[in-house]
Structures are given as structure tokens and as C-alpha cells.
Automatic annotation (TrEMBL):
Protein name: Multidrug effflux MFS transporter
Annotated organism of origin: Flaviaesturariibacter amylovorans
Xref: PANTHER family: MAJOR FACILITATOR SUPERFAMILY (PTHR23502), POLYAMINE TRANSPORTER 2-RELATED (PTHR23502:SF132)
Stored InterPro entries: Efflux_drug-R_Bcr/CmlA (IPR004812), MFS (IPR011701), MFS_dom (IPR020846), MFS_trans_sf (IPR036259)
Subcellular localization(s) per the UniProt record: Cell membrane
Length: 413
């Protein structure tokens, strides 16, 4: 593959991956205006976020088999069309209940982009390059928390919150046009793939029975859960505990997000010398150490603002190493069912992330200690699962080699 076309392909796949976070982050600054428009509370407006997460979870399981049966592009175009229609509907929604329902449909369309992008990485690039490509996608993805809230706040202030959804629809049209013109070579339709419910369930069951997928899907979800813990907790920690203004918090949020961007670049360099599994192990180890230090400092009330920023920056950077490598290893065993595997991977990631977000919301975290404790717990679980999982894989491989050696010896007798 030539460099220019490869670069353009990565950019387009990154834009597809960024649709979901942009759809979440861009309209957050308009929450207050939305509540005012519908004469309700901001807490009730947050149901539009909950319905979006539910739509992503369900939509991914639906789109996965469609991507395997009809190829990557046709279901993707249908999903983007649904997204555009739902976005326009959100812009003119007459009631909050209608907006909640339309956000569900918007998510169902958006998830087609993220799982298609993941599957197409498996289609278009050699397996040994997948971790590097996912690092580039994380690079594009990491820009969304820096740009989307700013764009949303400007649009909301200048044109009203409804304009945010019109702009989102316009962006999708441009991305779809770019995909139509420049994205080539992904997997085509498979007429032998059955869409009968029993067959779909068998496919999902076969994916879940792959130990490598199950291990690294859960590990990637835990890495994402650490990021979600920070996102859900940071407003209370920095604006209430440390007393930052909204503007200061926005700048800090963008700075900490840059840790993910730097990690994506570092990962491409590390992959020249280390395997993905090794990078994941060291990244989880770093998270455990950083979070443990944070817990001890917060428990002793020595968690100053500068200390918190430094520890969180490197903790998030470690998450930026875990997610692309774990995603690449989870997808590696699949060539024929990459769409279904991508859907299940996204479902596991978003499912655990949604649960974490709900739990953090119920805990109403307003200080650093509970946030650090939640991060430490997740990282410890991730490291233990990695060590136990890789040990089980080595034992299984060793047992298999022993059986093969015994068969060879028997044949030679």
C-alpha cells in the first residue's frame, strides 16, 4: 500500500472512530440551554446521554453480523444515513422525550462507524501492523475531548444548542463522502454468512470461545473504564474539590487528554522493539503504581493540584498504551468474522464503560481519594487478569506441544 493512500485511509478510519465521542462531547455544553428550552432539570437532560449509551450497546450487536454478511460499506452507509436523519430530528425535537428517543437512534447509527472502522483495520492492514494502526486511531480519537466541547460551546452561545446537531449531521455527510471516494479494499459481501438469529448467536458464541479475544477484550474495556472513571469524576474533583472555574477545567481537560495523544505516538515507537502483550503488562503495572501513590497521597491529604495533574497525566497515557494494543490482540484471531468480533469488542468496552459511568454518578465523587481508589481497583484487576490469562495461554500452548511431541515420538517407534 502506498504511503499517501495509507495515510488517507488511517485519517478516514480515525474520523469514523471519532463520531461517537464527538456525539457525546459536543453537546455537553448545551445541557443548561436544553433544560431551559424544555423547562426541565439538567439531571433529566442527562437521560439523553443514557439513551445514547444504550443505543450504542444494542446497535453494535446488530451491525456486527450485517458487516460480515453485506461487507463493510453498505451497512456503514445505512448507519450514517440513520445518524444524519436522527441528528436533524434532534435539532427540531419538540420535547425532551422525543430528544431522548432520537439520541437512541443517533447512537444506533453512530456505532456502525466505530465497529466498521475496527473491522476495516483488520481487513486493510497486516495483523502485525494492527496495534500501530489502532494507535493512530487513538491519536485522532484523543483530539475529540479537546475540540468537541469547545466547538459545542461556541455553537451553543452563537446559534443555540440545536445548531450543534445540524453541524454533526453536516460533518457526517462530509465523512461519508470521503469514505465513498477514497476508502477501498475492505471486505466485500459474504453470501454464505447467515443472518438467522440462531446462526448469529453461534457466531457470537464462537467469538466468545476464543480465549485470546475474551482476555484482551476485557483488558481493553478495563483500560477504557479507567478513562471513563476520570471523565465522570474529574468535574467534581477539579471544580469542587480544587475550586477551578469552568474555563480552567476545560483547559486542564484538554491538557490531560494530550497524554493519550502522546501515548499513541510513543506506542508506535515501542512496537518496533516490544510485543503488544509486553507493552500492556508494563502499562497496567505503571497504572497500579501511579494510582497507589495517588491513593496514599489523597488519604494523607497531600494531593495538591499539581500532583493530581501529574499523576493523572501519566495514568491516562498508560491507558493510551493499553487500549490500542489490547484491541489489536483481541481482533487478531479473526479474518472471516471480524465484523462480529468488532461488535462484541465494542459492546464489552462500552458496556463496562457505561456501568462505570453510572456507578461514578451514584457515588457523586467530589474529592480525589475515591476517584484514585476506583482507578487503583480497576488497574489491579486488569493486571491480575493479564497475568493469569497469559499464564493459562502458556500452559495450554505447552500442553499442546507436549502432545505433539508424544505423537511424533510414537510415529517414530
Amino acid at each position: 500500500m502506498k504511503a499517501p493512500s495509507s495515510t488517507l485511509t488511517i485519517v478516514l478510519l480515525g474520523l469514523l472512530t471519532a463520531i461517537v465521542p464527538f456525539s457525546i462531547d459536543m453537546y455537553l455544553p448545551g445541557f443548561t440551554d436544553i433544560a431551559r428550552t424544555y423547562e426541565t432539570s439538567v439531571a433529566r437532560v442527562s437521560l439523553t446521554l443514557s439513551s445514547f449509551f444504550i443505543g450504542i450497546g444494542i446497535g453494535q450487536l446488530v451491525y456486527g453480523p450485517l458487516l460480515d454478511r453485506f461487507g463493510r460499506l453498505r451497512p456503514l452507509y445505512i448507519g450514517l444515513l440513520v445518524y444524519c436523519a436522527a441528528s436533524v430530528g434532534c435539532a427540531v425535537a419538540p420535547s425532551l422525550d422525543t430528544l431522548i428517543a432520537l439520541r437512541f437512534l443517533q447512537a444506533a447509527g453512530a456505532c456502525s462507524a466505530s465497529i466498521a472502522a475496527t473491522a476495516m483495520v483488520r481487513d486493510l492492514f497486516p495483523p502485525q501492523d494492527n496495534a500501530k494502526i489502532f494507535s493512530y486511531l487513538i491519536l485522532v480519537l484523543s483530539v475529540s475531548p479537546m475540540l468537541a466541547p469547545t466547538i459545542g460551546s461556541v455553537l451553543s452561545a452563537a446559534l443555540g444548542w440545536r445548531s450543534i446537531f445540524i453541524v454533526l449531521a453536516g460533518l457526517i455527510v462530509l465523512i461519508a463522502l470521503g469514505v465513498r471516494l477514497f476508502l477501498r479494499g475492505s471486505k466485500g459481501p459474504d453470501v454464505h454468512y447467515s443472518l438467522r438469529p440462531a446462526s448469529i448467536l453461534r457466531t457470537y458464541r464462537s467469538v466468545l470461545r476464543e480465549p485470546v479475544f475474551l482476555l484482551y477484550a476485557v483488558l481493553s474495556a478495563i483500560g477504557l473504564a479507567g478513562l471513563f472513571t476520570y471523565i465522570a469524576s474529574s468535574p467534581g474533583v477539579f471544580m469542587e474539590h480544587f475550586g477551578l472555574s469552568q474555563q480552567q477545567y476545560g483547559i486542564l481537560f484538554a491538557f490531560l487528554a494530550s497524554g493519550l495523544i502522546i501515548a499513541a505516538q510513543v506506542n508506535t515507537v515501542l512496537l518496533r522493539r516490544f510485543r503488544s502483550a509486553v507493552i500492556i503488562r508494563w502499562a497496567f503495572g505503571a497504572q497500579v503504581l501511579l494510582a497507589a501513590i495517588y491513593v496514599l497521597l489523597a488519604a494523607g491529604q497531600r494531593d495538591g493540584l499539581e500532583v493530581s495533574i501529574g499523576l493523572l497525566f501519566f495514568y491516562l497515557a498508560a491507558a493510551g498504551l493499553i487500549m490500542p494494543n489490547a484491541t489489536a490482540l483481541a481482533m487478531r484471531p479473526f479474518s472471516t468474522h471480524a465484523g462480529s468480533a468488532s461488535a462484541l469488542l465494542g459492546f464489552v468496552q462500552m458496556g463496562l464503560g457505561s456501568v462505570v459511568t453510572v456507578v461514578i454518578g451514584l457515588l457523586a465523587i467530589r474529592s480525589a481519594l475515591p476517584m484514585a481508589a476506583c482507578m487503583l481497583g480497576g488497574s489491579v484487576i486488569g493486571l491480575l487478569l493479564l497475568l493469569l490469562g497469559t499464564r493459562a495461554q502458556r500452559q495450554k500452548k505447552s500442553a499442546s506441544l507436549t502432545v505433539q511431541e508424544a505423537l511424533v515420538a510414537e510415529d517414530q517407534m
